[in-house]
């Protein structure tokens, strides 16, 4: 890890970016020659073209140097020296991009990171599923209610959640709103994480509005007390390292809407290489990871660190082909595999995949998404997840990697900073009958703050176990 304070190092990484994807020649548009799944049926192609032309003129949201630094951090994960914490909403919404909601998510992420760093004694690479997670792949293109069929909600970047023909019609102007919402979210995150709020001396403050009635909050409070004592000890010894005063936080989302991602792709003037400047880290979803598909072609053309979701049906041969396509140079940190297999199958499926990659020798960071293989419908009709299934998949992930002597490199979760009731279980014991109380997600059920902290404690224990 660098000895320079993160905030100082980030300032050295200023751009620039000169050329946009349109000027960069045919390679960057090569994805257009491949089938692209999960793209909206925009009713007005001219408006889409006008919007993407505008996107191409807008400032980058992230810098190439920051993306490269994240690649370095993820290389440490691939080498077994660091751990990824990636999380946030399933689907961010424009209405939900408020200061208090963003702050609550960040607080939760910071608290989880502290639990992991302290509890597992490992550097934690923090990546928000934030500032750009506005587009969703769907299992079905339409939704039927009371005999009325309308296009499915595909995220605020595409259409509205409300079930009306008007709201559900894809509107390209929403891509511009997604850009601006991403910008304000990222701006606030940067201010919080480098402007003193993420200072480790604030470890109690992050918990303030939470501790009283929550078992997870009380457990956190005890850990924060230990950290406080360690900080006082360090101060008494004359040590006050700058690393404790700011946090390096990266943004990420699923690179789903290729017109949007392409519109924000720029050449780095230092190297001429292309970066998708909509986020530091982009991943390809389970439904769009076809080897000859447009999403893989797009990801190949940019130099950001990228991830790919791996579901239960991928074969070792398919996985090796994907790795070859996405990281032909075998650069450590470039590729993260995010497995989302399901608690019921993970112990059968994951060992073969891990073995195949280890035998091949490709450097990858292995991250566990214990959410997307464990979704089911409650009797009330709510889409939910059992907290115990989530933990079971995580435990299996650690066991499998331990048996294979590979590195369990991190977690990818859906959570929110609010006290929602979307997943059942946890130390506050939400039951199926409670789900209606605060079910607010625009897409998949998220862990609430207490469940997210409970999970961090369990992960820290599993990681530490010899
Ligand atoms: C998601 O991360 O919200 C998602 C849709 O995941 P997956 O592609 O793994 O199904
Ligand atoms: Co989801």
Describe this structure in words.
Mean pLDDT is 92; it is low at 1-14. It contains 13 helices and 15 strands. It has helices at residues 6-11, 45-57, 64-78, 99-120, 165-168, 173-194, 215-236, 258-263, 294-301, 316-326, 346-360, 387-404, 449-464; strands spanning 17-20, 83-88, 124-128, 142-145, 148-151, 249-254, 265-268, 274-276, 281-284, 306-310, 335-339, 365-368, 375-377, 383-385, 408-414. The protein is 38% helix and 14% strand. Strands 2-3-6-9-10-11-12-15 form an eight-stranded parallel β-barrel, surrounded by six helices. Strands 1-7-8 form a three-stranded antiparallel β-sheet. The chain has a two-stranded antiparallel sheet with strand order 4-5. The protein is globular, with a radius of gyration of 21 Å. With 466 residues, the protein is of the alpha/beta class. The protein binds phosphoenolpyruvate and cobalt (II) ion. Residues 90, 372, 414, 443-444 line the site of cobalt (II) ion.
């Amino acid at each position: 890890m660098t000895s320079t304070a993160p905030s100082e190092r980030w300032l050295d990484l200023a751009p620039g970016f000169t050329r946009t994807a349109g000027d960069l020649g045919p390679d960057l548009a090569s994805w257009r020659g491949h089938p692209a799944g999960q793209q909206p049926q925009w009713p007005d192609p001219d408006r889409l073209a006008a919007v993407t032309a505008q996107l191409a003129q807008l400032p980058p949201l992230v810098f190439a140097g920051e993306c490269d630094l994240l690649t370095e951090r993820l290389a440490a994960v691939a080498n077994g020296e660091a751990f990824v914490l990636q999380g946030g909403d399933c689907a961010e919404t424009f209405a939900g991009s408020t200061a208090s909601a963003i702050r609550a998510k960040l607080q939760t992420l910071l608290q989880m990171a502290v639990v992991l760093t302290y509890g597992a004694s490992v550097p934690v690479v923090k990546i928000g599923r934030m500032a750009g997670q506005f587009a969703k792949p769907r299992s079905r293109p339409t939704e039927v209610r009371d005999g009325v069929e309308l296009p499915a909600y595909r995220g605020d970047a595409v259409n509205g959640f409300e079930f009306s023909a008007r709201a559900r019609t894809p509107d390209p102007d929403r891509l511009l709103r997604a850009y601006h919402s991403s910008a304000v979210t990222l701006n606030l995150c940067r201010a919080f994480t480098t402007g003193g709020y993420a200072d480790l001396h604030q470890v109690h403050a992050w918990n303030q509005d939470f501790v009283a009635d929550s078992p997870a909050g009380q457990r956190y409070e005890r850990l924060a007390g230990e950290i406080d004592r360690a900080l006082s000890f360090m101060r008494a010894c004359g040590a006050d390292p700058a690393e404790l005063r700011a946090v390096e936080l990266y943004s990420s989302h699923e690179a789903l809407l290729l017109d949007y991602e392409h519109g924000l792709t720029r050449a780095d003037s230092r190297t001429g290489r292309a970066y998708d400047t909509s986020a530091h880290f982009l991943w390809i979803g389970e439904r769009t990871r076809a080897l000859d598909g447009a999403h893989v072609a797009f990801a190949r053309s940019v130099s950001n660190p990228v991830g790919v979701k791996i579901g239960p049906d991928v074969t070792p041969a398919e996985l090796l082909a994907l790795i070859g396509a996405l990281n032909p140079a075998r650069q450590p940190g470039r590729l993260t595999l995010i497995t989302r297999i399901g608690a019921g199958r993970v112990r059968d499926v994951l060992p073969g995949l891990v073995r195949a990659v280890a035998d091949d020798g490709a450097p990858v960071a292995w991250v566990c998404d214990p959410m997307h293989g464990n979704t089911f419908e409650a009797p009330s009709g709510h889409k939910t997840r059992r907290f115990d299934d989530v933990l079971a998949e995580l435990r299996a992930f650690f066991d499998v990697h331990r048996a294979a002597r590979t590195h369990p490199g991190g977690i990818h979760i859906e959570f929110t900073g609010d006290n929602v009731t979307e997943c059942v279980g946890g130390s506050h014991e939400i039951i199926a009958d409670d789900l209606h109380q605060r079910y607010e997600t625009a897409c998949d059920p998220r862990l609430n703050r207490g469940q997210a902290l409970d999970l961090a404690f369990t992960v820290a224990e599993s990681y530490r176990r010899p």
